[in-house]
Amino acid sequence: MRLIRLLPSVMAALSAFVGSGAADVDPIVIKGSHFFYKTNGTEFFIRGIAYQASVTADDTTNGTDDYIDPLTDPAGCKRDIPLLKELDTNVVRVYAIKPDEDHSECMQMLADAGIYVIADLSQPSQSINRETPQWNNALYARYTSVIDSLANYTNVLGFFAGNEVTNNASNTDASAFVKAAVRDMKSYIADKGYRKIGVGYAADDDADIRQQIREYFDCGTDAERIDFFGLNIYEWCGDSSFKQSGYADRTKDFADYDIPAFFSEYGCNAVQPRQFTEVQALFGPEMTGVWSGGIVYMYFQEVNNYGLVTVEGSSVSKLPDFTSLSSQMAKATPSLTNMADYTPTNTKNAACPTVNAAWQAVASPLPPTPNKDLCSCMTQSLSCTAKSNLSAKDVGRLIGVVCGLSESACAGISTNATSGKYGAYSVCDPAEQLSWVFNAYYLEQGKKDSACDFSGAATKQNAAKSTGSCQSLLNQAGSSGVGTVTAAGATGKVAGATSKGAAPGGLTHQAFLGGFGLSSAVQIGLYSVSALMTGLLMVLL
Q1: Which of these is catalytic: 164, 215, 278, 432?
Q2: Do domains 2-341 and 372-540 have the same CATH topology?
Q3: What residue segments make up the domains of the chain, in order of their start?
Q4: Angle, to 10 degrees, between the axis of helix 104-112 and the axis of helix 74-86?
Q5: What is the largest CA-CA distance in the chain?
Q6: Average pLDDT across the chain, whole number
Q7: How far apart are CA 512 and CA 250, in angstroms?
Q8: Is 262 helix (H, G, I), strand (E, B) or coil?
Q9: What are phi and psi of 156, to 5 degrees?
Q10: Measured between alpha carbons, how far apart are the two ends of the chain, in Å?
Q11: Which residue from 123, 333, 378, 459 lies 20 to 30 Å from 144 (Cα-Cα)?
């Protein structure tokens, strides 16, 4: 794998060779609302464990990502896999991998143990932020790098494009950006010629928006919707029951779902030690027709007391929760269906939810697909640009200043998930966006020298003459940046930009608490109402 990192030009070919040979297991495929082994056709129920130590806010200070990728630790995998097998585990969920590092040894050991992987695509400083959601070039590069790193291992079951990004009725607009990521990652997998690997979403169990979340991510075209739905659910606490816990109601909710649904996290710890009596319901006849199993939160014991084991170096100690789960899993014997004998009865995508006070994201159009070529061509074509030495804080402040002076100058970078209107340059990085708004304002002011200054933050340049593909991209974006760009760029096809418009998400409250948001540079660089008002006040003062 060091050779792969040292020779990027042959990375794809070597990765395909290493990946396909290093973890050669029967891939999991989807038919209707169930998972199956591709070759032997046996139904696959997820007996999963969340397998990653958490990060805290302190671990991501100044954009530093000091999280541990468990799939790059062969010693840890060798230590833990026997215990995972004791729990009858066939899936581990990993919340953040480091795509540039070597996963081959752990993936091989997991494959040898018959264990599959579901990987989240984000990381602590790069995910879709529920408060200031964006789908941009930096996130696209992060998500595709994870896919490139893992796609050729046949024991990769799927990817999560988001985790609890929308977690209440106040931030439902963020779901549009997650769904755009789903669309683009599904397209990327197909364009790269990888085997078909599902891309899904993990939702929290919020009573106010349960129905809308379920509908939104399954509605629309097959190219846009998720391939599977994960629910992070903590309703069964102590020695509860199918009806008392709410499991009966949740099962009724998904009874007509046309794609696989499973518990992407479960294991309430309000009563300790956990008895995991819900396992018998989850893998019993009342639920297996609707649900495809679940993932227990979590393997490692931490301050939140959700652990199954304590780990100190090479030493592992089982906790009472481990013993309870092992006992319950040993008794779980779901009835299996063969893929050849299964005819899906639910074949229709969900209807899209209505936009109202409780749901603020239209299903179409979605945010545009990121395109590095578009942003590069735009920057080169400008007469007034931002200086390169500006801090992230200054970039964000200045975007607010310009947008406070002229809303129309910011139309090309704005996003509005409720109206479905997105600027073509909303996918660009903050410095590129600042250059766009500087130039737009400069042109609006008749190219006055004073309009390209902003206390020395802006500078004039000789705009490059756009030709060929650059000219085509810029023509599609339009002079105000609100056109629909469809030409292929450095990171894929761009679509959906139509006209102007006006707490970090990414992991659950247990998993990676406080860890997953955009980098500080991206967060403060985003155009928002608060930035606009801040800028306007600064100008007036």
Answers
A1: 164
A2: no
A3: 2-341, 372-540
A4: 20
A5: 77
A6: 87
A7: 26
A8: strand
A9: -90, 115
A10: 57
A11: 378
Residue in 43, 215, 224, 265 annotated catalytic: 265
List the beta bridge partners of residue 338: 42
Best CA proximity match to 181, nearest among 158, 202, 160: 160
Nearest to 420 by CA among 500, 510, 358, 537: 500
**Annotation: CATH topology of 372-540:** Methane Monooxygenase Hydroxylase; Chain G, domain 1 (1.20.58)
CA pair distance 373, 175, nearest whole angstrom: 26
Structure tokens at 185: 């990652």
Phi, psi of 188 (to 5 degrees): -65, -45
The residue type of 44 is F
Q: What is the DSSP letter of 284?
A: S
Q: Is 379:435 a contact under the CB 8 Å cutoff?
A: yes
Strand bridging mode 46-50 / 91-94: parallel
According to DSSP, the β-strands at 261-266 and 229-233 are parallel
pLDDT band at 522 (very low <50, low <70, confident <90, very high): very low
* pLDDT at position 81: 98
pLDDT at residue number 486: 79
Task: Provide the residue type at 378 as one letter.
Answer: M
Q: Kindly report whether the peptide bond that precedes residue 273 is cis, defined as omega within 30 degrees of 0.
A: yes
Q: pLDDT tens for residues 418-428?
A: 999 999 999 99
Using CA atoms, how far apart are residues 539 and 453, in angstroms rounded to an integer?
Answer: 14
Catalytic residue check, 265 = yes
**Alpha-carbon span 31 to 9, nearest angstrom:** 36
Q: Please give the CATH architecture assigned to the domain spanning 2-341.
A: Alpha-Beta Barrel (3.20)
- Asked if 523 and 400 touch (Cβ cutoff 8 Å), the reply is no
Query: If you ran DSSP here, which 8-state letter would residue 350 be given?
Result: P
pLDDT band at 54, cuts 50/70/90? confident
Distance separating alpha carbons of residues 105 and 135, to the nearest angstrom: 33
Question: In this predicted model, what pLDDT tens digit does every residue of 161-183 receive, in sequence order?
Answer: 999 999 999 999 999 999 999 99
Nearest in space to 121 (alpha carbons), one of 93, 152, 102:
93
Q: How far is CA 30 from CA 24, 196, 257, in A?
A: 19, 10, 13
Q: What is the pTM of this model?
A: 0.87
